[in-house]
Amino acid sequence: MKQFLEGAVAIARTVALCRPGVISAYPITPQTHIVEELSSLIANGELNAEFVNVESEHSAASCVLGAVATGVRAYSSTSSQGLLLMAEVLFNIAGMRLPVVMCCVNRAVSAPLNIWNDQQDIMTVRDAGIILLFAETIQEACDLHIQAFKIAEHKEVMLPVIVNIDGYILSHGYEPVELPLQETVDKFLPPYNPAYKLDVDNPVTLGPLSGPEYYLETRYAIQQTMNNEVIKIISQVAKEFTDLFGRESYGLVESYKLDDAETVFVAMGSICGVIKEVVDELRDKGEKVGVVRIISYRPFPNETLVKLVASTKKIIVIEKAISLGSNGPLFTEISSLLYTTHNNKNKPLISGYICGLGGRDVTKEEIVSIYEESKTQSPTAKFINVKQENLGSVI
Amino acid sequence: MKEIIIFARAGQGAITTAQILGSAIVKSGKYAYAFPHFGAARMGAPMNAFLRYDDKPIRLRNQIKIADYSIIVDETLFSFKNPAETLKPQGIAIINSLRNFPLTDTKQIISVPANDISVEITGRPFANTVLLGAFCAVTGIVPIEILYESIKERFKGKAAELNIKLSEAGYKFIKKQ
Hints:
The structure holds two protein chains of two kinds. Chain A has helices spanning 7-17, 33-43, 57-69, 80-95, 120-123, 138-153, 182-188, 215-245, 271-284, 302-308, 329-341, 364-374, 388-391, and strands spanning 2-6, 22-25, 50-53, 74-78, 101-106, 131-134, 161-166, 174-178, 253-256, 263-267, 289-294, 296-298, 314-319, 349-354, 382-383. Chain A is an alpha/beta fold. Chain A has two domains: 2-245, Rossmann fold, CATH 3.40.50.970; 254-391, Rossmann fold (3-Layer(aba) Sandwich), CATH 3.40.50. In chain A, α1 (7-17) packs across α2 (33-43). By secondary structure, chain B is of the alpha/beta class. Chain B has a single domain, classed as Pyruvate-ferredoxin Oxidoreductase, domain 3. In chain B, β2 (31-38) and β3 (46-54) form a beta hairpin. Chain B is globular, with a radius of gyration of 15 Å. Chain A binds chain B through residues 2, 4, 6, 115, 137, 166, 168-169, 172-176, 270-271, 273-274, 276-277, 361-364, and chain B through 15, 18-19, 22-23, 26-27, 31-38, 41, 57-63.
C-alpha cells in the first residue's frame, strides 16, 4: 500500500528494514530528520540497533567506520558542512574497504551560509573511492538505500556507498511511497558477513602505514573494482531488485525518450523530473529530444553512456554544482568521456549549464530556453538565472 | 495537474496542512507531491508549502508561483498584497480572515473566520484544519470523510478528535453559505 510519506521518514523506515546494527549521527544543523526518525524507531523498540549520538560529523563517520570494521552493518546521514567535516574519515572508510552506507541530503556549502539544495557538497568527496548514487524521487531514494547495502557489502566490491537526495525537494517533500515488506528485504539482503573484520580471536590490522612500496596498488585496486566489478554489480543488483520487488530500478543510468533523439539532456537527481516534463512538451511539438539521467556518478558509467549518446548531435549538461575556476563536474566528465572514446567525425556538441545553486528554483521555462539556446550555441559553465541586480552587492 | 500554495509563517503548521491534504488526495486515488519552501528558516518567518496533484505521478519539482488554489493561514502576509495575485485565472483562494475581498472577474477569494471558529471549539486559534474542511467543501476534490481519515493518521487521541471537529466546522461554514 502506498503511503504519503516525507522523504526523510520514508528513507529512515527503509533503512530500518535493512537491519543496521549501529547508526551514528550528529543531530543538529545541517542534519536532516532521517536520523531523527531512526532514533525514534530505536527508542520505540521497532529497530534493534544502537544509536550513537556523537559530538561532530567527524565522530559520526568514525563511529560507523569502527562499527563496520567489527563486522556490523552501520548507517549515517549528513549534509553540506557535515559532509565536509566527515571528508577525512570518508577517505579512510573507502581506503579500508569498509561498506558503510550513508545518505547525503545534498545542500549548498558555506559561505555565505545557505541551508538550501544544490549538489556541491558531495563533489568534495567524489574522488574518495565512494560509490555515489543519485535519486530522482523519494521512492527511488528508498529503493537505492536497499540496493546500496547489497552493492557495498558484495564481496567483490567492499566499498562505501552514499545515496544522494536533493535537500528539501526530496528530504522534506512528501510523495506516495511503497515501503517493502520486511521479509522481501530479508530475502534480498542477507546479514552482513564480511571476509575480514576486527576480531580479538583472529586479529587483523586495517588501515596501517603503507609506504611508497604499497600505497599505489591500494588506489589501483579501488579503481579496478570501481570500473569493473561495481559497474557490473550495480546493474545486476538493480535487476535483482526489479525482479523481487516488482518495481523498476534502472541501475547505472535511466534513459528517457532517447530513440531518434538528436538532443540529449544529461543531469542527476530530482531536476530530471522537471527536464522530463519539458522533454514531453518538446516532443509534442516534434522536437527530437531525450534525457540521460545519471544514477551512478561514481563509478561513472562510461561505456553505457557512450552507447546511449552514440548518434546524438547535441548534449546539454544541466547541473547543480560548479568547480569554481573550471566547469561543472558532470560537464567535465561527459566531455572527457566523449573526447577519449568517440569517433571524431561524429562527436556531439556539448553545452554546460549551472543552475539551482543554494536552492535557486529551476523552472520548466528555463529548461526550454536552454534548449532553444543550444540550437545555435554551445556555452560552457553558463549560469542560469543570474540576477544582475544582485551582483553589485556580492563581493 | 492542479497546484496549491499554502501561505503561512514557520511554526503555523503549513507543512502538516499540506501533508494531511496530500494524504487525503492520495487516498482518493490520485498522485500528489508536497514540499515546503522556507524563507528565513526561523519561526515566524513567512513560508510556503506547495502541493501538486494529478492522475499520474508528479515529476515537476519547482516552486509554484501562481496556483489553482491558495490556502492562506495567516492573513497578515497579505496586508499589502491581494490574494488574487497568487492565483491562475480561474483560481480560488481560501483565506483565514474576517474581511471581504473585492471580487475579480474570474477568481474567487473566500474568507473563512478560521481563528474564531477554532477559538470557539478549542479555545485557541488553530486555523489549519478549519481551512482544510472549507477547502473540501469549496473544491469537492476530497470527500470530507477521507480528510478525517488523514487527520486521524496524523494526530492521536484528543488532538485527532478536535482537528476533525475543526475541519467539520470549516466544511459546514462553507456549506451553509
